[in-house]
Write a structure and sequence with these properties.
By secondary structure, the chain is of the alpha+beta class. It has nine helices and nine strands. A hairpin with a 2-residue loop joins β6 and β7. The protein is globular, with a radius of gyration of 21 Å.
């Protein structure tokens, strides 16, 4: 069974870190190894690399991450240094194929957030059981406007607005799941906030223009890339009308 990496969310409470800093942190903590051992072999140029890492370490490929996010490498490096100085100390060793990043206090982070997850799961199961008991007599069939009936899932996990946002984005892009699915709910939450701020029409307009760009569209299977593109939207020159 694969390791489910605990993701600490208290970084959202730190005003000094923006959405990009958070995406860098989640990239680091989400790719940390849970045990000592070698990574799957990979190619760097024409050389086959075999790299062994300690528990709590990962290889951060700055150039690849910067390319996927549509920023320069300096922005990524600056964010890593900022996180190490002001959030959680990182030990960084630069290599030709990327940076080996070791998260200090990794064991404490994993233990703390596993305990929080267990507490949340226990509370969630208790609430689900209470809801299940009180709703046993409720029929889980919803009538549509034309009188047809369609089966409806008896439970919907998480906030409905986040679920609707994820469903709408995946349907618009034409995918079943985002590549960075581990953080999709957090990023969807930011998308909901942004939609409320700029309005639904403007949100959809920006999304349509982004998806119309072939270069950007191929990266839209990553929700954090999509969110940054919508939030930092720059009006294409050919779409600005002259009056």
């Amino acid at each position: 069974m694969s390791w489910k990496q605990p993701i600490n969310t208290d970084i959202f409470e730190k005003d000094e870190f923006d959405a990009f800093d958070r995406s860098v942190w989640f990239e680091i903590i989400g790719r940390c190894r849970n045990e000592d051992g070698p990574l799957p072999p990979f190619w760097h140029g024409n050389k086959r690399m075999v790299v062994s890492l300690e528990r709590g370490s990962m290889v951060f490929r700055v150039s690849q991450f910067a390319r996927e996010q549509g920023v320069d490498r300096k922005r990524v490096k600056k964010s890593i240094e900022k996180l190490s100085k002001w959030y959680n100390e990182l030990h960084i060793v630069r290599k030709p194929y990327g940076c080996i990043v070791k998260v200090k206090n990794y064991n404490e982070i994993v233990k703390m957030h596993n305990e929080k997850d267990i507490e949340r799961t226990t509370k969630g199961q208790r609430k689900d059981n209470e809801r299940s008991t009180s709703n046993k007599s409720v029929e889980s069939v919803k009538k549509s406007p034309n009188g047809d009936s369609g089966l409806k899932a008896s439970k919907e996990y998480g906030k409905p607005e986040i679920n609707r946002m994820l469903e709408a984005l995946k349907g618009k892009i034409g995918i079943d799941a985002f590549v960075d699915f581990k953080i999709e709910r957090n990023m969807a939450k930011h998308c909901v906030t942004l939609l409320k701020k700029i309005g639904k029409d403007e949100f959809v307009r920006r999304l349509d223009i982004i998806l119309g760009d072939n270069f950007k569209r191929k990266n839209c299977n990553r929700i954090k890339f999509l969110y940054h593109e919508i939030k930092g939207f720059i009006e294409p020159v050919n779409s600005i009308k002259s009056f």
